[in-house]
């Protein structure tokens, strides 16, 4: 019986390794082709570079104006995460602790909003944003991300907060803590696993988003990394070697952030979905 179990485990591990290698294939193509000349890319995209073209990264760094677009992306991503965490954690807390029918209706409305395709509201959104003066503004974009990201964020916080004992809050209230203090001093510190998960998932989405920033940020000085990378593709020329180098530069900060925080992902998602 033990040998049979060991054999099955070995097969599962081999399958998992093969699946992992399949997912690594796109990274191989991106990194290897970012170190080739344009002619080498056209000749054979699968081959390793004969000579490492590190100047591709230097040119991409300069052409992207990397420090500026990196700063823009960082401001938008961090700002969006901050407002999503603050507003959605408080909203989810009230929806869980307020035992009324209207709370369930509001919660289900947020969940239902997650399935609405962005393309269906794209035009009215931009018209409304123009009327409110939110176009060509990074903080206007942050407000839009708050709207689009609230559904999933509240859903995750809602499930996690259900597992927090109410007795902790009651004890704090007896000790003289205000409702606002109960949330920020007692409840919010317990939300660390799901907060990290929310931060990672939203960062992956916002950092890599192209469509919404392309509609909102028309000023070249406000371009994010995905918007700047797009300009390597002209009407008549496509600078693949620079575009791929720029892509690698854009994902390095996100990969570092992801691997530094990944230990919280499984714990946060399972706690938020099961409790």
CATH topology of the domain at 67-232: MetI-like fold
- Broad shape: globular
How many runs of DSSP E, i.e. beta strands?
0
User: Counting H and I runs of at least 4 residues, what is the number of helices?
Assistant: 14
Q: How much is the radius of gyration in Å?
A: 23 Å
Major sheet: none
Order of secondary-structure elements: HHHHHHHHHHHHHH
Given as residue ranges, the uncertain stretches (5+ residues, pLDDT < 50) are none
Characterization of this structure:
With 275 residues, the protein is mainly alpha-helical. The protein has a domain of 166 residues: Orthogonal Bundle (MetI-like fold). It is built from 14 helices and no strands. The chain is globular and about 70 Å long. The mean pLDDT is 86. Belongs to the binding-protein-dependent transport system permease family. Its main location: membrane.
Short description, anyone?
Belongs to the binding-protein-dependent transport system permease family. Helices cover 78% and strands 0% of the residues.
Task: Give structural attributes.
about 280 residues; mainly alpha; MetI-like fold; globular
SSE map:
Elements: H1 2-34, H2 38-43, H3 55-64, H4 66-97, H5 101-113, H6 118-131, H7 138-161, H8 166-174, H9 179-190, H10 192-208, H11 211-216, H12 225-230, H13 240-261, H14 265-274
Helix pairs in contact: 1-13, 3-4, 3-13, 4-5, 4-7, 4-10, 5-7, 7-10, 7-14, 8-9, 10-13, 10-14
